[in-house]
């Protein structure tokens, strides 16, 4: 009997799994709110220099004051970062304004916004931009706030990946929920931009812990046959979260209250996370079989299988995990991701897939103001496109397999982004439509690679593996805003890079093994046994002595 058979015995799709997966999926609803929060709390409202402080506004209209103090740019709108060093009252004359413009307004002495800025707060009553004047010379700090957040996600992927393999999924999930709740609350009440960034880093780290441990607890308590459906369901929770964010942001226009609103639900998830049972697979492989037996008995009773619960004992569990326990002797680290040729291939290819998916995804999603329509509307459209995209990729993963689905989603996304470069800027609707389709393909790629990666990495280093690829994804998200800076000199270059990266990683994905209808690997030896399609074609028909591949793992002849 294998562990999967034991899971079927206690009920693999019963009441426990339904409640377990549902509760683990609830925090995922709010993850999108933190990932994409920047679009709203850091929205840049229309702004221009404030008039000189010594000007009396009582004797003239605000329009006259602006005309005399703030010049017009080449686009006919008030300049954002400069004003006249001295009020130009002569410009209030209709003739003088035209004459001075023809002679050259640039000859008039200018200065920066010495008395601050005036912001149009029609759409957002307050953002971190208006709070700390992150405009003009300080405009780069807007991107820094998102970069530091993604830096926290990157650090969390490394930190929580290793810690959860050592201390368990449940403990780290509790810590992550509390960290997200407290970090978000403190960020909402920050008194400086530096403090805001520090607590956003904490939120980023917590998000990695939530993603990694929630996914592992879900996958390790469900059977192979429903992993695709469950994986897609949790993906839809993130999609729904994007729609929730648009609705919450529309109702709450102040950045502090908005940040607090998307953080408070994590206090609730922290409280009910104490109910979760630790992964029985992890408990057995870390020599805590007695607790694993207790957890399996609990699952059986919750699922209404009391007779089966009484049959489960330590001997039965050890027999079902004989091979896995024999191969899991010793400690594991991130270095084991490169231990064998099979693991090296998986790690390198998945690194490329995760990096490019996240890189292109956040390149498209994190600057909604560039589309020229309401940021609330475009957020809903960007979120809604995930629904058909994930339905299609779920069908594809179940019928065609994980590998062709992953390759197809990446290559199609890259091609659409490159095609968008050829569309004239005047055709804004067409450009936006193509961007939405490209974003849908990248969302499908994300949905696929979360499930695919969990099936490729074995249980003993699954958290290390998921932590590593998640780190690569966050690195891609950090790099994405920097690429936009290249567009100042070469407008076509950011789109070319955003489109080329997914196509290249789609080629890498072709070299991954197929996992459709395959049992979840528990050890590195399981991964080596499974092998790769093109390698299997070259193998001799006779059996190999698999124990020679890994001297630390001596298998019984019958288990081979």
From TrEMBL:
<feature type="transmembrane region" description="Helical">
    <location>
        <begin position="255"/>
        <end position="277"/>
    </location>
</feature>
<dbReference type="Pfam" id="PF00083">
    <property type="entry name" value="Sugar_tr"/>
</dbReference>
<keyword id="KW-0472">Membrane</keyword>
<feature type="transmembrane region" description="Helical">
    <location>
        <begin position="376"/>
        <end position="395"/>
    </location>
</feature>
<keyword id="KW-0812">Transmembrane</keyword>
<dbReference type="InterPro" id="IPR036259">
    <property type="entry name" value="MFS_trans_sf"/>
</dbReference>
<dbReference type="InterPro" id="IPR020846">
    <property type="entry name" value="MFS_dom"/>
</dbReference>
<feature type="transmembrane region" description="Helical">
    <location>
        <begin position="345"/>
        <end position="364"/>
    </location>
</feature>
<feature type="transmembrane region" description="Helical">
    <location>
        <begin position="171"/>
        <end position="192"/>
    </location>
</feature>
<feature type="transmembrane region" description="Helical">
    <location>
        <begin position="198"/>
        <end position="222"/>
    </location>
</feature>
<feature type="transmembrane region" description="Helical">
    <location>
        <begin position="229"/>
        <end position="249"/>
    </location>
</feature>
<feature type="domain" description="Major facilitator superfamily (MFS) profile">
    <location>
        <begin position="90"/>
        <end position="517"/>
    </location>
</feature>
<dbReference type="GO" id="GO:0022857">
    <property type="term" value="F:transmembrane transporter activity"/>
</dbReference>
<feature type="transmembrane region" description="Helical">
    <location>
        <begin position="492"/>
        <end position="512"/>
    </location>
</feature>
<feature type="transmembrane region" description="Helical">
    <location>
        <begin position="147"/>
        <end position="164"/>
    </location>
</feature>
<keyword id="KW-1133">Transmembrane helix</keyword>
<feature type="transmembrane region" description="Helical">
    <location>
        <begin position="465"/>
        <end position="486"/>
    </location>
</feature>
<feature type="transmembrane region" description="Helical">
    <location>
        <begin position="433"/>
        <end position="453"/>
    </location>
</feature>
<dbReference type="GO" id="GO:0009925">
    <property type="term" value="C:basal plasma membrane"/>
</dbReference>
<feature type="transmembrane region" description="Helical">
    <location>
        <begin position="407"/>
        <end position="427"/>
    </location>
</feature>
<dbReference type="InterPro" id="IPR005828">
    <property type="entry name" value="MFS_sugar_transport-like"/>
</dbReference>
<protein>
    <recommendedName>
        <fullName>Solute carrier family 22 member 6</fullName>
    </recommendedName>
</protein>
């Amino acid at each position: 009997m294998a562990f999967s058979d034991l899971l079927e015995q206690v009920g693999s799709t019963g009441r426990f799994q339904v409640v377990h997966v549902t509760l683990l999926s609830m925090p995922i609803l709010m993850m999108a709110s933190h990932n994409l929060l920047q679009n709203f709390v850091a929205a840049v409202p229309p702004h221009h220099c404030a008039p000189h402080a010594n000007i009396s506004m009582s004797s003239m209209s605000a329009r006259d004051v602006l005309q005399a103090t703030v010049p017009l740019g080449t686009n006919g709108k008030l300049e954002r970062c400069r004003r006249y060093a001295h009020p130009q009252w002569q410009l209030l004359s209709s003739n003088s304004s035209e004459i001075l413009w023809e002679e050259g307004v640039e000859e008039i002495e200018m200065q920066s916004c010495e008395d601050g800025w005036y912001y149009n707060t029609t759409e957002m009553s307050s953002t971190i931009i208006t709070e700390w004047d992150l405009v003009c010379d300080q405009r780069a700090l807007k991107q820094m706030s998102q970069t530091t957040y993604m830096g926290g996600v990157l650090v969390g992927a490394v930190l929580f990946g290793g810690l959860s393999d050592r201390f368990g999924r449940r403990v780290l999930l509790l810590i992550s929920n509390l960290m997200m709740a407290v970090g978000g609350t403190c960020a909402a009440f920050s008194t400086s931009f530096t403090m805001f960034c520090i607590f956003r880093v904490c939120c980023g780290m917590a998000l990695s812990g939530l993603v990694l441990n929630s996914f592992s607890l879900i996958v390790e308590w469900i059977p192979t046959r429903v992993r695709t459906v469950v994986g897609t369901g949790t993906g839809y929770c993130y999609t729904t979260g994007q729609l929730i964010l648009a609705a919450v942001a529309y109702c709450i226009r102040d950045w502090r209250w908005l940040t607090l609103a998307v953080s408070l639900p994590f206090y609730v998830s922290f409280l009910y996370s104490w109910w979760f049972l630790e992964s029985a697979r992890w408990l057995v492989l870390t020599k805590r079989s007695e607790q694993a037996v207790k957890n399996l008995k609990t699952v059986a009773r919750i699922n209404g299988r009391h007779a089966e619960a009484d049959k489960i004992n330590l001997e039965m569990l050890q027999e079902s995990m004989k091979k896995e326990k024999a191969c899991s002797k010793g400690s594991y680290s991130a270095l084991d991701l490169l231990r064998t040729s099979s693991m090296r291939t998986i790690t390198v290819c998945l690194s490329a897939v995760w990096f490019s998916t996240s890189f292109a995804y956040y390149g498209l999603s994190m600057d909604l103001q560039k589309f020229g329509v309401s940021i609330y509307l475009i957020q809903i459209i960007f979120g809604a496109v995930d629904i058909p995209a994930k339905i299609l990729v779920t069908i594809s993963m179940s019928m065609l397999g994980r590998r062709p689905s992953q390759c197809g989603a990446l290559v199609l996304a890259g091609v659409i982004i490159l095609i968008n470069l050829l569309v004239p800027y005047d055709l804004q609707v067409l450009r936006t439509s193509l961007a939405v389709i490209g974003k849908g393909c990248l969302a499908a790629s994300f949905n696929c690679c979360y499930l695919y990666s969990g099936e490729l990495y074995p249980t003993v280093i699954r958290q290390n593996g998921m932590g590593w690829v998640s780190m690569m994804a966050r690195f891609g998200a950090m790099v994405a805003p920097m690429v936009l800076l290249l567009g100042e000199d070469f407008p076509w270059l950011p789109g070319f890079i955003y489109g080329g990266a997914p196509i290249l990683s789609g080629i890498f994905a072709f070299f991954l093994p197929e996992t459709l209808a395959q049992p979840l690997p528990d050890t590195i030896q399981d991964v080596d046994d499974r092998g790769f399609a093109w390698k299997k074609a070259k193998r001799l028909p006779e059996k190999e002595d698999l124990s020679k591949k890994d001297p630390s793992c001596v298998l019984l002849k019958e288990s081979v």
